[in-house]
C-alpha cells in the first residue's frame, strides 16, 4: 500500500484563514498579529489566571525512545483532534522545531501522517522568526562581552579564561564546537577560545520558555551569569547593561504563535529548548495561553519521561503553579522490542519475547509518573509492523498495573483513530485526577535534589560527583544559587548515564561530571557523561533528499 508522505498530506490541506482559527478560541481578529493568512501571534494580555485554574492540562511524554523517536508530537496532535471529536474544546500546545534536526536526521516536529499542524513547511523552517530572535539576542550578548574585553572605557575587568557564554546558530555544525576568535591583530579583539552551541541549547531559549511576562523576561536576561573578573567577582549580563537590548530583539518572540491542525483545531506553537540539556518543553506563556482559551490543553515534553516529563513537572509546573491532570505515556512496539534487546535492523520484526522484556522500561516510567500523584494513560502509537499479540500483551500488562493502554492510530486516521485515547484521558481527568505533587522542593540542598532525581526517577543506586562537579558545587554555594531547580543533562537513550544500558537498568551509579549554571533560567545543570550542545550532521543528512521547484513547492521535508 502506498502512503502519502507527511508533506504531501500537509500540502493537500485547504487551510482555514487564521482569523477563523482564532474565532474558535473566542479571540477577535483585531487581537491577533497576522503573519500572512495562516499564522498569527497572540497578545499576552489574553492570559487569564482564573481560567487557567479551571481548565485541564494533559502532558504527553514517552518511554525511553529509539533514535527516531516514538511520535509524541503526532500523538499530542492526534489526541487533540480526538478530544474535539468527542465534544471537548481542546488545543494542542507544542514546541517549535529546530533546523538542526530538520536538515539532520530526526526530521521536523510538526507531527506526522494525518495528525499534523500546518502550514507544515513554515513551522519546520523559519516560522515567525522566534528562533532567529533567540539566536540574535544570544549573540548580541556574546558581542558585548568581547567588546568589553577590547575597550578600556567601562571595562569590567572580565577574565577571558572564565567566560562561559557561547555563541549559537540553529544548525548542526560540528566544526563550530570549539574555535579560536579574536585573531588577526589588536583591531580584531582579544584572542581566546570560544565555541558555538545549537540555538535550542541557548540559555536565552530556556529563559524565553521560563518567562512569565515581558518584565520577567528582562529580569532573567539580566541575571545571565557570564564569568568572573580577575578579582574573582561574578559578572552578569546586567553588568553589561545588555538585558534591555536583548529584550528588544525578543519583543515579538515572546508572543505565542497560533496555527491549526489538519482538522482545523487551534494549535499554539512557541519556544523550543532541548530536553536532554534544557527543560524540553514549550513556553510557560504558551501553556498558560492555551489554558486561558481552551477547556483541554494537550502539550508534550521532549524525549522520554525521565527527561522531558521530569523537567516539565519539577521545573515548569512547580514554578508556574500548573496542575497537570493526566500524563499520556507514548509507547511503540518497536521501542519495546528495542528495550528487549533486538538490534535496530530488527525493530520492525515481530518479537513477543523482546516486547515482554522491554515492557520493564515502560513499567518504570509508569511508576515514575505516579510519584508525582498523577495517573498515566499509555498510548500505543500504532505502526504497520505491530502484531495483535504484541499489542494485546501491552494492554493486558498495563491493565494489571491499573493503567489504561489504548491503541493510538492518529498517524493513519487522524482524530477518528484517537477517540478511544481521548475517552481514556477524559476518564482520568474526570474520575482519577489528583493534585499534582512535585518530587522535590527547590529549597532542598543541591546534592539532595540531584540524588532524588537520580535514585527515584532513573533508579540509580548511587551518585558520584567528579572533582570538577565538587568545585562547581562550591561555586554555586558562593554565588547563592542553591535554591535553583535541577535540570539534568544526560543521554536520552537510557535511564542511566550510559546509552548502552537499555530496558530498566538496576544497581548502577550515575556520575556528575560537572555542573553548569543557567542563572537567568534559574537552573542548575548537572552534566552526566559527555553531553553534546552542538550536534553534527549524519553521513547522509536529510537535506540531501529535499527539493524545491520553480514555483516554490517543497518536497522531501518530513
Q: Secondary structure elements and their pairing?
A:
Elements: H1 6-11, H2 18-24, E1 33-34, E2 40-41, H3 49-54, E3 56-62, H4 72-85, E4 90-94, H5 99-103, E5 111-112, E6 115-118, H6 120-124, H7 130-150, E7 167-169, E8 179-181, E9 192-194, E10 196-198, H8 203-210, H9 214-222, E11 225-228, E12 234-236, H10 243-249, E13 257-261, E14 266-269, H11 284-293, E15 296-300, H12 305-320, E16 324-331, H13 333-339, H14 352-370, E17 376-381, H15 388-400, E18 404-408, H16 410-413, H17 419-431, H18 446-458, E19 462-465, H19 467-479, E20 485-486, E21 509-518, E22 523-528, E23 547-548, E24 554-555
What does this structure look like?
- The protein folds into three domains: 10-129 and 253-431, Rossmann fold, CATH 3.40.50.300; 131-249, Domain 2, N(10)-formyltetrahydrofolate synthetase, CATH 3.30.1510; 446-528, Formyltetrahydrofolate synthetase, domain 3 (Roll).
- The chain has 558 residues and is an alpha/beta fold.
- Helix content is 35%, strand content 18%.
Query: What is the overall number of helices?
Result: 19
Strand content: 15-25%
Radius of gyration (CA) equals 23 Å
Indicate the percent of residues in helices: 25-40%
Low-confidence stretches: none
- The fold-level CATH name of the largest domain is Rossmann fold
The structural class is alpha/beta
Label the CATH architecture of the largest domain: 3-Layer(aba) Sandwich
The major pleated sheet works out as: 12 strands, mixed
- The CATH class of the largest domain: Alpha Beta
How many extended strands? 24
End-to-end separation: 19 Å
CATH homologous superfamily annotation of the largest domain: P-loop containing nucleotide triphosphate hydrolases
Question: Mean pLDDT, nearest integer?
Answer: 95
- Count of all domains: 3
Global shape? globular
Amino acid at each position: 500500500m502506498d502512503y502519502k508522505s507527511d508533506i504531501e498530506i500537509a500540502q493537500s490541506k485547504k487551510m482555514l484563514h487564521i482569523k477563523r482559527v482564532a474565532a474558535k478560541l473566542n479571540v477577535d481578529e483585531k487581537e491577533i498579529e497576522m503573519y500572512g493568512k495562516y499564522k498569527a501571534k497572540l497578545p499576552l494580555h489574553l492570559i487569564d489566571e482564573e481560567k487557567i485554574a479551571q481548565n485541564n492540562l494533559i502532558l504527553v511524554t514517552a518511554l525511553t525512545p529509539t533514535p527516531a523517536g516514538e511520535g509524541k508530537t503526532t500523538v499530542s496532535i492526534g489526541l487533540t483532534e480526538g478530544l474535539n471529536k468527542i465534544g471537548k474544546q481542546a488545543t494542542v500546545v507544542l514546541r517549535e522545531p529546530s533546523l538542526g534536526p530538520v536538515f539532520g536526521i530526526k526530521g521536523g516536529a510538526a507531527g506526522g501522517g494525518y495528525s499534523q499542524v500546518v502550514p507544515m513547511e513554515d513551522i519546520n523552517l523559519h516560522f515567525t522568526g522566534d528562533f532567529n530572535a533567540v539566536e540574535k539576542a544570544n549573540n548580541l550578548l556574546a558581542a558585548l562581552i568581547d567588546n568589553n574585553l577590547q575597550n578600556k572605557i567601562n571595562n569590567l575587568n572580565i577574565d577571558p579564561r572564565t567566560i562561559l557564554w557561547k555563541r549559537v546558530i540553529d544548525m548542526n555544525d560540528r566544526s563550530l564546537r570549539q574555535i579560536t576568535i579574536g585573531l588577526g591583530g589588536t583591531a580584531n579583539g582579544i584572542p581566546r577560545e570560544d565555541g558555538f552551541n545549537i540555538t535550542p541549547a541557548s540559555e536565552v531559549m530556556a529563559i524565553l520558555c521560563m518567562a512569565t511576562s515581558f518584565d520577567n523576561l528582562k529580569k532573567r536576561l539580566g541575571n545571565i551569569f557570564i564569568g568572573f573578573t580577575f578579582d574573582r567577582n561574578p559578572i552578569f549580563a546586567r553588568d553589561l547593561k545588555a538585558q534591555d537590548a536583548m529584550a528588544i530583539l525578543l519583543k515579538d518572540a515572546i508572543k505565542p504563535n497560533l496555527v491549526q491542525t489538519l482538522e482545523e483545531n487551534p494549535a499554539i506553537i512557541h519556544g523550543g529548548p532541548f530536553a536532554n540539556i534544557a527543560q524540553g518543553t514549550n513556553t510557560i506563556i504558551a501553556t498558560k495561553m492555551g489554558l486561558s482559551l481552551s477547556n483541554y490543553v494537550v502539550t508534550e515534553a521532549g524525549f522520554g519521561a525521565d527527561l522531558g516529563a521530569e523537567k516539565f513537572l519539577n521545573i515548569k509546573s512547580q514554578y508556574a503553579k500548573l496542575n497537570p491532570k493526566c500524563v499520556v505515556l507514548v509507547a511503540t512496539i518497536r521501542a519495546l522490542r528495542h528495550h528487549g534487546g533486538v538490534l535496530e535492523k530488527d525493530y520492525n520484526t515481530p518479537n513477543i519475547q523482546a516486547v515482554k522484556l522491554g515492557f520493564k522500561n515502560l513499567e518504570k516510567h509508569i511508576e515514575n509518573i505516579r510519584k508525582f500523584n498523577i495517573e498515566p494513560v499509555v498510548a500505543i502509537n500504532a505502526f504497520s509492523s505491530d502484531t495483535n499479540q504484541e499489542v494485546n500483551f501491552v494492554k493486558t500488562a498495563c491493565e494489571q498495573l491499573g493503567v489504561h493502554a489504548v491503541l493510538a492510530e492518529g498517524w493513519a486516521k487522524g482524530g477518528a483513530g484517537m477517540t478511544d485515547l481521548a475517552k481514556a484521558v477524559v476518564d482520568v481527568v474526570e474520575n482519577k485526577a489528583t493534585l499534582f505533587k512535585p518530587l522535590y522542593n527547590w529549597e532542598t540542598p543541591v546534592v539532595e535534589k540531584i540524588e532524588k532525581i537520580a535514585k527515584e526517577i532513573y533508579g540509580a543506586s548511587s551518585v558520584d560527583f567528579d572533582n570538577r562537579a565538587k568545585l562547581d558545587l562550591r561555586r554555586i554555594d558562593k554565588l547563592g544559587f542553591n535554591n535553583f531547580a535541577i535540570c539534568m543533562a544526560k543521554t536520552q537513550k537510557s535511564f542511566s548515564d550510559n546509552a548502552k544500558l537499555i530496558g530498566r537498568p538496576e544497581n548502577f551509579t550515575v556520575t556528575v561530571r560537572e555542573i553548569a549554571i543557567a542563572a537567568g533560567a534559574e537552573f542548575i545543570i548537572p552534566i552526566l557523561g559527555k553531553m553534546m550542545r552542538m550536534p553534527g550532521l549524519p553521513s547522509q543528512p536529510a537535506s540531501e533528499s529535499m527539493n524545491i521547484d520553480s514555483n516554490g513547492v517543497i518536497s522531501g521535508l518530513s
